[in-house]
Amino acid sequence: MGLIIAECVCVPAFIFEISRAIGGNELSWAYVFEWPLFGGYAIYMWHRLLQDERGVVKPRQSNKQAIPEDDAALDAWNAYLRQVHGDDSPKH
């Protein structure tokens, strides 16, 4: 329903702005190109949402690399931090 509403707004707005642009209103030339972009974006998002609803769109994978479990340097660093902060307990 949203796509129909979006296209019912974009197509007449495009026709209106092109008639104004041809009539001499120079600012309307920007809108002549803007309204079809809005309509195209509405179609793109509709298509994308349909794919997402059907499970066709795969979630994007992050570029973060997993930290290996047996990283000796990381273990040494964590041991050092435990040693340094071991004496930070509140004293009563």
What does the model show?
There is one protein chain. By secondary structure, the protein is mostly helical. It has a domain at 2-54. Helix content is 67%, strand content 0%. The chain is built from three helices and no strands. It has helices at residues 2-22, 28-54, 72-85. The mean pLDDT is 86.
What would the keywords be for this entry?
single chain; 92 residues; mainly alpha
Short recap of the structure:
Helix content is 67%, strand content 0%. By secondary structure, it is mainly α.
Look at the helices and sheets and give the structural class: mainly alpha
Low-confidence stretches: none
Mean pLDDT: 86
Number of helices: 3
Strand/helix succession: HHH
Distance between the termini: 68 Å
> What share of residues is helical?
55-70%
Global outline: elongated
Quote the beta fraction. Answer: under 5%
- The total count of strands amounts to 0
Whole-number radius of gyration?
Answer: 29 Å
Oligomer: single chain
**Biggest pleated sheet:** none
